[in-house]
Amino acid sequence: MTxxxxxxxxxxxxxxxxxxxxxxxxxxxxxxxxxxxxxxGPLVPALAGGLAAGTLSCALGAPQANPALTLALLCxxxxxxxxxxxxxxxxxxGAVLAATAARLVSAAGTAGQALCWEIFATFQLALTTFASxxxxxxxxxxxxxxxxxxxxxxxxxxxxxMNPARSLGPAIVTGIWDNHWxxxxxxxxxxxxxxxxxxxxFGPGASREKLCA
Amino acid sequence: MTxxxxxxxxxxxxxxxxxxxxxxxxxxxxxxxxxxxxxxGPLVPALAGGLAAGTLSCALGAPQANPALTLALLCxxxxxxxxxxxxxxxxxxGAVLAATAARLVSAAGTAGQALCWEIFATFQLALTTFASxxxxxxxxxxxxxxxxxxxxxxxxxxxxxMNPARSLGPAIVTGIWDNHWxxxxxxxxxxxxxxxxxxxxFGPGASREKLCA
Amino acid sequence: MTxxxxxxxxxxxxxxxxxxxxxxxxxxxxxxxxxxxxxxGPLVPALAGGLAAGTLSCALGAPQANPALTLALLCxxxxxxxxxxxxxxxxxxGAVLAATAARLVSAAGTAGQALCWEIFATFQLALTTFASxxxxxxxxxxxxxxxxxxxxxxxxxxxxxMNPARSLGPAIVTGIWDNHWxxxxxxxxxxxxxxxxxxxxFGPGASREKLCA
Amino acid sequence: MTxxxxxxxxxxxxxxxxxxxxxxxxxxxxxxxxxxxxxxGPLVPALAGGLAAGTLSCALGAPQANPALTLALLCxxxxxxxxxxxxxxxxxxGAVLAATAARLVSAAGTAGQALCWEIFATFQLALTTFASxxxxxxxxxxxxxxxxxxxxxxxxxxxxxMNPARSLGPAIVTGIWDNHWxxxxxxxxxxxxxxxxxxxxFGPGASREKLCA
Lengths: 213, 213, 213, 213
Description:
4 copies of one chain form a homotetramer.
Chain A: H1 13-36, H2 43-59, H3 67-75, H4 81-106, H5 110-131, H6 138-152, H7 164-174, H8 182-202, H9 204-212
Helix pairs in contact in A: 1-2, 1-4, 1-5, 2-5, 2-6, 3-4, 5-6, 5-8, 8-9
């Protein structure tokens, strides 16, 4: 974080990647909180939102994902005006996108709704997985665990599975195969999307490529 | 922590900053526990208090925020008498201030009450954020997540939002704008206040300045 | 993780140990989620699954335990085709085994059911304990704590005890000794099994032996 | 941990300190689980027990506090027979002591019961605090937070306060002073006891003294 903010920043790949990370982080945070708010009481959305924000902070290079924090960094001259304005717009856009998508999805049928939430929950889990590929330490395991808890609390019906094998086992044993494809297509789509995002946009290799280009 | 306690300590900026940190930490801890006690059962206040205390310990340089711990450190000669007495007074003052504020706020209207709790919850979140600006490691992400969970469990009605974007998204989609200003003014005031506190009082730069002065 | 996948991999002890780790990790994850799903609400299975996955990631060398993540790693060329296929099969086999065992166990009597869940819960706890024997740092303590929470939430009746002493104390005081042998035989069997698995298959010493052979 | 076990171990201060740590850790773990079992559902005792075990592992040098784990270490020759037997006896003694104390306390009046649980909850919190005095890192803060959550979930009526200031604030504001002395005497006794235990038995300085003697 630098306190300078010059127009030439706009030509930097790193600048736009940080702005995009803010939009994606706010989108995921808002989506997780909205998805978890179907449960009664304050505990489930609080846990889901906090754990998602904590792991996103690891996966996406510590975005603020919060206009209040961004404005406080602006006030204390830790963030330039141009970057601050771009970040604020990105955060609001991410949150509005998440709320719009959640509203649209709630009008879909049960299978469509489950599919969308599976894609979303697995996307945030896989982003954390890709970001932690190079570390095998204990905190990484805890970060993955947090992402799984956050994803499993998301979704208005029964929480995210995010794992085709976990759905396959009970399906074989009980013989109940209704909408089973959802738990393969959703998680795989979400994870592949997250892998591509990380490789081409947020990962360290991607950043070096873009900085050289 | 030193076992000596001499009158000249009273002229040290570091001494008073530590005493102030104890008052602020006890104020936040007591406020979070009181705010979370509206939920039924012991789980929500226990989680909120523990997570707030854990993150405050990172943000404010490991205050005890607890007269029992301070007295135990005094008994084992890990803390001088003068410093111990100042710390004990600061802790009691912080807790009384928190309880008084919580009582006064509960007499305000719904919007005023929500505004005050948003300021408070975002203050503790932003303090953690500023303290962890220089680290981008996994534990920092977990500390931020803990501060968000603690804040989201605080407040007697629906928990803290602490995030204007998270409130903006659903407001645009649902068209419900009642008291929406609260979720901008509260978090921004709380975060800016925390930023100023950290920069001028608790941050490492601030400490060096004060030690030199 | 390498992007090459050659037939001679099939002769490597390390290859098969990784495939086995995927099967065991998916078996444990699926078993914990199924065992915790008896509780009402989404919170208990989400916490149990996430905490188990987080600690397994430390104990077994960061397996994916999830076909969606494995397919995403395949798509981004982080995993070879041969290894990816073996891992996918292992994950599905582990999950089907866990679901079958859970179904079979639910037909046993109360004591048999408790015995099986005690073996299972203590197995995953002891695997984490053995993997963390060489570290005495704070994150290790948290990993152990997570494994205990995950195990204690598992099992359809009253959660896992995983600890004969914890069951002995109340039995002596209350004089209720019904099925007390379950809480000695189950945890001891599970822990010894985990110890042997770790020493001969997953531990660093075991890997060196197998690589040399 | 060594695989040898010779009679001369019995003259080593380190040997007996490890055995005592096993007894104390099993006592605290069993006490926390029993104290938290008054809450409905499996979540509260699981969280309290796991978090207490995780932080005890940091504070007391990674005791097993579990006969099943000790027997598994014996079977894999990671622990000698003499040490293993002493540790097993210590664990059972600790658990029986905890269960007996919990039974005796439940016969006391409300104030006496609250006093005993406050002493116990603050003892385990203060032990963690003393053990982490030398570290100011993020994991330490999380360990303290875990100890506070575990303690706050303990005790059959309203959870542990463990903090006189937190009880003083509401008492001044509401004017309700019934049994207020309990929340000063209990936590202070528990914390001082923990401080003395740590300084004279479990701390690194204490260990050096005993090894030299």
